[in-house]
Design goal:
It is built from nine helices and four strands; from the N terminus they run αααααβααβαββα. The protein is an alpha+beta fold.
């Protein structure tokens, strides 16, 4: 990127030493990529006004004071206010054709689950609680409140709704393979023995919201890869200079 050519070898070394080089390159890459994305004037003005409100600088005096305190001109402020919206628009335009395949790869990680959980470090207690819940001797939620050793004891054992990817991989695999209402024999994960009942499993759909989420993920992946490549080019510049000096 031409904008980074102004950095001297010493500057690159200094920025890298402070672990800021990648974030600098990434930020500049995003800025240059989205700065010319067109937004409808009404949408643009509305977003800028909303951003000013979130900062509490709706009136002109507060706005001018904020700009001065942050050493920004108005055009730079607009760029800040519109960055998120420009990223969304750029992602929609440039990655929409890849959204469906990316969604299919990610789908099983994004499905939403609700499940009940009893977690104990005692394997014998876990087996006893499983039998009591299975035979309807006591309500699952009551058992979780009395015996579970995790935060789920405060919610009567209920976990979710959450994306299944937020669960431990072994637990996620179990949830994918079981049926709602079925209580599992205790399964061991790390030092705990879990009694689990799936309450609901809701596969995600590729609606408008999910299309936006997937396109943003693709944009982020592209930016991260490109930024690493650009950073390496800068680092190579320092190596070349060192070789010449030698």
């Amino acid at each position: 990127m031409e904008s980074l050519n102004c950095l001297s070898v010493d500057s690159i070394k200094l920025i890298r030493r402070n672990q800021l080089l990648l974030s600098l390159v990434r930020g500049e890459l995003i800025y240059l990529t989205i700065k010319d994305v067109y937004l409808e004037p009404k949408i643009k003005d509305s977003q800028i006004e909303a951003y000013r409100e979130t900062l509490g600088i709706s009136d002109e005096e507060k706005k001018d004071q904020w700009l001065k305190q942050n050493d920004l001109d108005w055009l730079s402020f607009e760029d800040l206010a519109l960055e998120e919206m420009r990223i969304k628009e750029y992602s929609r335009i440039n990655f929409d054709d890849k959204v469906e395949s990316h969604f299919l790869k990610r789908k099983n990680e994004l499905d939403i689950v609700i499940y009940s959980l009893i977690r104990t470090s005692d394997p014998f207690l876990a087996q006893e609680l499983y039998q009591r819940a299975l035979n309807n001797e006591e309500d699952f939620g009551t058992l979780a409140t009395q015996y579970s050793e995790g935060i789920e004891k405060k919610t009567r054992g209920i976990i979710g709704p959450i994306p299944i990817q937020q669960s431990h991989p072994l637990l996620a695999e179990f949830l994918k393979s079981t049926t709602p209402g079925k209580i599992s024999p205790p399964i061991q994960i790390n030092n705990y023995h879990l009694v689990v009942r799936l309450e609901s499993y809701d596969p995600v759909k590729l609606d408008d919201h999910m299309r936006e989420k997937m396109s943003l993920e693709l944009f982020k992946m592209w930016v991260n890869k490109k930024a690493v490549d650009l950073m390496q080019e800068l680092l190579d510049k320092t190596k070349e200079t060192k070789t010449l000096d030698e």
